[in-house]
């Protein structure tokens, strides 16, 4: 009876050891998976979302700057009372540079006959186009893909004495 | 070994996330300075406005949009140049993780046609 009891314990012990060894082998095959999963998570999820988070504000930033440029060149033309597309383009370039979107400025025009006085009580419309980025990471990379255009209409003083 | 890898990877991910959050806040601050110079120039350009009105309005806009450590580091100065009121804004935006995220200096200029060019 004593011998049989010892034999059963030995068999149970060796079975437990085998189980422990097989578990150890299985665990060693999984070494490093956490790092791989994290790297994939960062590359596939975090990085694209980060790029999106950084790019979307650049859109509204450029739109706001383009509106400011259009407003200002229309105001400058209405204030002077003379249609001067060259001056409008110069102001647009200087403003875009000052607001930090100089490289994104696609064009700036005013709708009037060049060199002619603006009609009193009329309107002058400025149109500004900027290139919008699909990827914008400040200081690293900016990839422009599509254009966005805005207009501003400014009334001309009906009682103005200039020009 | 797996634990060490997990801790290292998590620390790296947190650092990247912090740098990203820092950049987003800096972009917001740059937008606030841009709004301030734009408002300031427009306010200074109207008849009876001038440099003082420009700087006062720009300061009000900055007070409303940014606070904390950024507000004392952002300022707007105005001047009249060639028939324009020009507002020049600067801000020094400190990095949250010294050594990893550098300090970012922002400069923005806006102008508006002066309605009272005297």
Report on this model:
The complex is a heterodimer of chains A (163) and B (118). Chain A is built from three helices and three strands, in the order αααβββ. Chain A has helices at 2-29, 33-80, 85-99, and strands at 105-110, 123-137, 141-155. The radius of gyration of chain A is 35 Å and the shape is rod-shaped. Chain A starts with a helix and ends in an 8-residue tail after the last strand. The model of chain A has no long low-confidence stretch (mean pLDDT 84). Chain B is an alpha+beta fold and 118 residues long. Chain B has one domain (2-113): Pantoate--beta-alanine Ligase, Chain: A,domain 2 (2-Layer Sandwich), CATH 3.30.1300. Chain B has a three-stranded antiparallel beta sheet. In chain B, helix 1 (2-45) packs antiparallel against helix 2. The mean pLDDT of chain B is 90. Chains A and B meet through helix 2 and helix 3 of A and helix 1 and strand 3 of B.
The CATH topology of chain B comes to: Pantoate--beta-alanine Ligase, Chain: A,domain 2
N-to-C CA distance of chain B? 75 Å
Lateral arrangement of strands in the main beta sheet of chain A: 1-2-3
Unreliable parts of chain A:
none
Which CATH class of chain B is shown?
Answer: Alpha Beta
Number of domains of chain B: 1
Tell me what the CATH architecture of chain B is: 2-Layer Sandwich
Largest sheet of chain B: 3 strands, antiparallel
Cα-atom radius of gyration of chain B: 19 Å
- Provide the residue-averaged pLDDT of chain A: 84
What portion of residues of chain B is helical?
40-55%
């Amino acid at each position: 009876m004593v011998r049989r009891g010892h034999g059963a314990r030995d068999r149970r012990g060796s079975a437990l050891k085998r189980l422990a060894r097989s578990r150890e082998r299985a665990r060693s095959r999984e070494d490093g998976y956490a790092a791989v999963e994290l790297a994939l998570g960062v590359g596939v999820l975090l990085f694209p979302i980060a790029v999106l988070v950084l790019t979307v504000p650049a859109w509204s930033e450029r739109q706001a700057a383009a509106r400011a440029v259009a407003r200002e060149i229309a105001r400058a033309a209405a204030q002077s009372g003379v249609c001067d597309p060259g001056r409008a383009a110069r102001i647009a370039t200087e403003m875009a540079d000052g607001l930090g979107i100089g490289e994104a400025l696609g064009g700036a025009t005013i709708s009037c006959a060049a060199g002619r006085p603006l009609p009193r009580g009329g309107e002058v419309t400025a149109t500004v186009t900027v290139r919008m980025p699909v990827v914008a990471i400040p200081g690293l990379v900016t990839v422009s893909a599509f254009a966005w255009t805005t207009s501003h209409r400014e009334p001309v003083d009906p009682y103005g004495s200039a020009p | 070994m797996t634990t060490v890898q997990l801790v290292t990877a998590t620390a790296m991910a947190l650092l990247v996330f912090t740098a990203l959050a820092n950049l987003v806040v800096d972009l917001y601050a740059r937008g606030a300075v841009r709004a301030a110079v734009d408002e300031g120039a427009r306010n200074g350009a109207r008849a009876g406005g001038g440099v003082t009105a420009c700087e006062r309005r720009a300061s009000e806009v900055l007070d409303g949009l940014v606070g904390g450590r950024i507000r004392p580091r952002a300022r707007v100065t105005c001047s009249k140049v060639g028939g324009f009121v020009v507002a020049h804004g600067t801000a020094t935006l400190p990095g949250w993780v010294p050594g990893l995220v550098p300090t970012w200096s922002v400069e923005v200029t806006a102008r508006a046609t002066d309605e009272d060019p005297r």
